[in-house]
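Handout, section B. The chain below has 632 residues.
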Amino acid sequence: MTTTNRMDHQAPRGQKRAAVLSRALARLERLQERSRLASAKISRWRLAIFVTGALCAVGPYKLGWYHLGNAALGFFALIFLLVARYHNRLEDRMHRLNLWAQLKRTNLARLTLDWKAIPDRPVETPASHPYAADLDITGRHSLLQLLDRTVSSNGRERLAGWLLDQTGRPPDQDRWRTRQALIQELSNLHLFSDRLALEAALIGKQEINGPRIQAAIASPAGFPGLIPLLAVETTLAIATAGLLLGSLAAGLPNYWIFTFGVYAVLSLMDSSKTAPAFGRALSLHDELDKLGALFRLIESRSYRASPALGRLCAPLKDRAERPSRSIRKLARICQALSIRAHPLIHLAVNALGPWDLFFTHRLETIRRQIASDLPTWLDRFAELDAAVALGHFAYRHPDYHWPSQPAQPKPQAGNGRPATLVAKTLGHPLIPQAKRVSNDLALLGLGRILIVTGSNMSGKSTFLRTIGVNTCLAQAGAPVCAASFDWTWARLACCIRVDDSLEEGLSFFYAEVKRLKRLLDAACDRSAPPLLFLIDEIFKGTNNRERLLGSRAFIRALAAGNGFGLVTTHDLELAELENDLPGAANVHFQETVEANELRFDYRLRPGPCPTTNALRIMALEGLPVPDDKGSR
């Protein structure tokens, strides 16, 4: 195994990204300040125009010069309306500018790992997930929080799925290659990515809930007898209007009262039938507005220079009726039906005609037209939404490496490539670059196990997470925090962060045993891809003697299974497994003591750890320790 280690230096291209964002933010802040000053100035002008117009109109009126007063009133009213219109447009531009600046601030926060400024939208994961909590894939200060700039629930779920569904068989080669090509193209289209986020923010904060839209479109909006009832009520409304006009203009008897009475009774009777359409429309019209705006942006692009993106978006462009137009129609219908939320206005418009029935019929018509296409549209948009997040991650980190397509792992006894994970300068993407230490790693062949020893706080757990997080990124199709990354597809399983459970009545040790049993069962499954296991402080919940015996037996069982990986331990006796277990090898982290302080370089070295530091830490903190230099 190669054990060359090095500290990361600030990469010029990474610095350039941060500098570009900082300059853009500075320009935006200057524009915001000028816009605020201009808006305040226009507000004063509007007040001055109003006061001047009032004075110029009231004076002539008092003198009896009514024509002059009317002319002055009309002139100043026109000037006021023109200035107000310009002011409103300026306010709209300011709103857009503020959202754009906030987007750039968030991008810079993602680049500098300023977690307080990065939005956190939790994703539910099963408590028994084999690596999500261990590797900080989900939760606060997690990989998903860093990556997630999606604007739809479907997109966020798709992105989470790419990172979390790595416990079974890999996607086929073409599908993985297509996904990575799409992410690579989007890494060069960061302005397009930002435009998508900006257009979504302009409509509102609520994200696009794909399952809710699809469920609403899948179920019928109409009811039996809708069209005949609409025809009858429309006829009655027209007859009422004609009879009322005849009564007012020609003195006809008030027959309109009878037709209106019948119309009113029918309207009250069908009110409950149109209520479901109202409930559906009330919850959807904002989301549909946002989806229509994003579809319109996608349709307006040329994809000659981005063929992978063009193939993905083809169902959203190559149609006689553009999806954005259909979605906008649906949004307008939902907005019209939502008028029911305002009782007085709703009563007035339905008194003039069968408003609810008409738009319920329109909703059913549009629903039928797009019901078969909507799942495809939402699926393609979810794929785009998730790929945009990874593409922007790649843009922010131009020095990260794009892994080549993973080879399909094959048994060592057969023809083909053995299970492999070889990386150069592998670092943790959730650690700031200035503090990150990178290490090389080589795992070749099934049964290969690195036994990692080292002092407390020397970096063992972080190194395990570094391997796991980068493997997740590579298998999702994203770049990795490394100079090179060569691997065969692997299932991931970890035992790093173990908690006891009061609800289930599990002690820490028993919870750990259950985790390790699931991991071992996965390693014994030879019908699936190899298992990459990462185990931290094995059996730390029991006594020294039983921990050592159990650890030896467990590592031997792992070595005989369909997997490879790393096991960290404080038991230096486990290092002896290297002598009689062919696949085992020792590596370690260590520390130095300078001026009564522990110093860690977080560098991976070959062989077992020659030092321990528990007593040193206790002594440095003022706790009593035995005066035995040999134990130190």
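Note. The CA atoms of residues 340 and 346 lie 5 Å apart. Compare this with the example in section A.
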